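Quick log. Single chain, no ligands specified.
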Amino acid sequence: MLNSLRVVCSARALVRTSRVSAAGPGHSLSTWLCSTDTRAPVKDRGLSYHTNPPHSQRNFCTRQVELNCWKCQQPRGKAPSFFCMSCEAVQPPEEGMSYFEIMACDHTFTVDAQKLQRRYLQLQRALHPDNFCQKSVTEQEFSESQSSLVNKAYTTLLKPLSRGLYMLELQGMRIEEGTDSGADSEFLLELMEINEALDEARTPEEANKIGQDTKGKLADLTERIDAALRKAELQTARALLSQMKYHANIAEKVKEKLREFM
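-> predicted structure:
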């Protein structure tokens, strides 16, 4: 029943969508289309879509074979096609789609968080399982799969740390949990001192000072990681992301400490 044809991804695919109507019997689902113009963001009915930059390695995607709709057997449309262009039935997730393509944003370490959130809300309004409670079991299952995938893509790309780690994963690199990759003894000693100071903080002001210092370090790391990824210096980016993990943990501990004073 499902069309299992493989696709070869391209980050130059540009997604455009039509308006989503309200759920209910006889409602009209969105038709998801794609444009090949990669020179600039495009706006369609209030939605913005972006292309991936030339330096991305995973991403330039064009389908070698057009996928057909599982329901009406007509072409689904260009990737990523969440709905069939002909019958508007929700489609299963496509193989090889990166989170950047799903969320229609540039394959870069710096993303526009507001646009990312708008894209997320638009997709979830269209794909939420509640919209398909009167549809077939197949469409209900596909809507759940697509909605879950959109959630994962959004949460991964939203924060710099998870976004950077995902970008390295796309290049075949991972930072294993519990490892000290990129962390030398001097850096680890600095972390111990920060943690000790946080444990000994007796006022909100003391804890907040540590939080502000950590925020500054995270901002600096963000700039350095962005520069490393743009230059394809993956080992450097990996080491910096490892440091970011530690400082992100401290930032969370600061929040917990501040809650203790409330």
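The longest strand covers residues 14-17.
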